[in-house]
Amino acid sequence: xxxxxxxxxxLVQPGGSLRLSCAASGNIYGIFGMGWYRxxxxxxxxxxxxxxxxxxxxxxxxxKGRFTISRDDIKKMAYLQMDNLKPEDTAVYxxxxxxxxxxxxxxxxxxxxxxxxxxxx
Length: 121
Fold this sequence. Notes:
Number of strands: 11
Helix content: under 10%
Oligomer: single chain
Mean pLDDT: 96
Shape: elongated
Number of helices: 0
Largest sheet: 7 strands, mixed
């Protein structure tokens, strides 16, 4: 099976920075796209950023220019560098990866359990 574990969340003041990490483990043959979503209280989960298997990033909405997504395929890690954080960035952040297992020829999407990011003075 596959497990995704996020880390790096916490409380930060407006204008501060955080770096989220997501580690994948299990019977993994390969990883295609990776992404970060977030869900604020009372709102739907939304895509924040994603990166393709060949390293092309895409950002959504107000995070453009402030967030940077990256990946390390050897370590099976995804990262989200978040700079100039704002109170409206407060949410639970989830990592997702599209993974092919050693035992299959098809890919499936996996999710982490989420990490809380709170931006407040």
